[in-house]
Request: fold
Amino acid sequence: MYKRFLNSLLFIAIIILGWQYPLLGYFIPFCMLAGIAIGLSAGRKWCDWYCPRGSFYDALMRPLSAQRGIPGLFKNIYFRIGVLFFLMLVMAINLILRWPNPYHIGKFFVSLLTLTTAAGIILAIIFHQRSWCSFCPIGTVINLISRGKESLRINSERCVECKICFKACPMQIKPYLFKGKGMEPVKEADCLRCGSCVASCPTKALTLEGKQKYT
Ligand code: SF4
Ligand code: SF4
Reply:
């Protein structure tokens, strides 16, 4: 948890100082590229705690969250792709209008970061701390490029469907829905590979392949 806390402080500092030093706004494209680069081999591991905003929601917004179910709309892939295209369009228009002044472009990134984080905070309080992460454009891109490479496995014979893993999962994933006849992949490209479900399962039915590689 200390990694998330430190990352949260970094995130808050970037947002506050960004209004004074607009070049800090380039933090947004950096996170986009880093998240997608990691996503090519490790799925949404970036969103676990490497992402300062994800850390901020987990470490600081969780105690303030109503801890309700994340609305199904936020997980709907068409809605997510719509949000992705809308924000990419907003970004492209602003880049064209502000080009080539790096300070004006940085200021736009700081504004975008502040506005989307404020929206995420409201959703965290009303629903769940990771509501924003369910349709975050970077998360959507990683979801699309990492499908079929999921690393969570469920031992169908061991699972007793107690649903404790669902309560432990920050993305409200239900690994027990993927039970089959033996060891089955949990085909959820939004899995953060955090290992919370693995640690919580009382029958040791879950395993995360390659976890050590990424933590
Ligand atoms: S916690 Fe373990 S036993 Fe319980 S539903 Fe999840 S995978 Fe199955
Ligand atoms: S590893 Fe388990 S707890 Fe973590 S996001 Fe994936 S399914 Fe959820």
